[in-house]
Amino acid sequence: MSELKKIREKQNLTQEELAEKSGLSVRTIQRIEAGTEPKGYTLKTLASSLDVLESDLLIPNIPIEPSIEEPILETEDEAIENLSLIKIINLSSLPLCWFPIANVLPPLLIMLISKQKSPIIKQIISLQVILAIVAPIIFMLVVILKLGKESVMVTIIALILADIYIILRNAYQLDKNNSLYYKLNFSIL
Q1: Which of 14, 122, 146, 159 could bridge to 189 as Cys pair (CB 3.0-4.6 Å)?
Q2: What is the pTM of this model?
Q3: What CATH number should be reported for the domain holding residue 36?
Q4: Which residues constitute the domain of residue 24?
């Protein structure tokens, strides 16, 4: 609460009454009560109208001691636990690689259940979403172009193997450097 408001309320004045008494606008009084510090003519006028010292209307400077907070360090166990969860989320797409639209569900469910939403986990799921969108498009193009049954089968196998390779390559990189090898520049989640 501003000092002006405290003094005004002690003297049982409304903002309108103070404005009339001081010759200032109601808007000026509202601004000062909202936190704007009065200066110059306004400060002198309010002080004389309320019969108080100018310093009484100013917000008292209370020195705030800077608190030194120790950063919360992640313990080694938490980091290992997080990394193992990230690996599980990454590898959970493998069983459904043959069905690109569904391979997003296991990592998404694990993320929601574990309530872990780290950027790496979001990247893993975003990458699977992109693959789930791109794979059917490529498959449909091969079917529409009528390249033959062999090309359709080769395309399906190639898409599945590409997804498996991306998942396994990211798992290897997670083991080695705690980062992803294949990642997007953006996150869908």
Answers
A1: 122
A2: 0.53
A3: 1.10.260.40
A4: 3-57
Distances (CA, A) of 175 to 77, 80, 119: 16, 11, 17
Q: Which phi-psi region, left, alpha or beta, contains residue 81 (left: φ > 0; alpha: ψ -120 to 50)?
A: alpha
21-48 burial, b if ≥16 CB within 10 A, otherwise e?
Answer: ebebeeebbeebbeeeebeeebbebbbe
Residue 165: predicted pLDDT: 92
Q: What is the pLDDT of residue 1?
A: 62
Residue 80 and residue 51 share a domain? no
SS3 state at 57? helix
Residue-wise pLDDT for 106-141, tens only, equals 888 888 888 877 888 888 888 888 888 888 898 888
Cβ-contact 7, 56 below 8 angstroms: yes
The answer to whether residue 144 is domain-embedded is yes
**Residue 72 predicted with pLDDT over 50:** no
Q: How does the average pLDDT of the chain come out, rounded?
A: 81
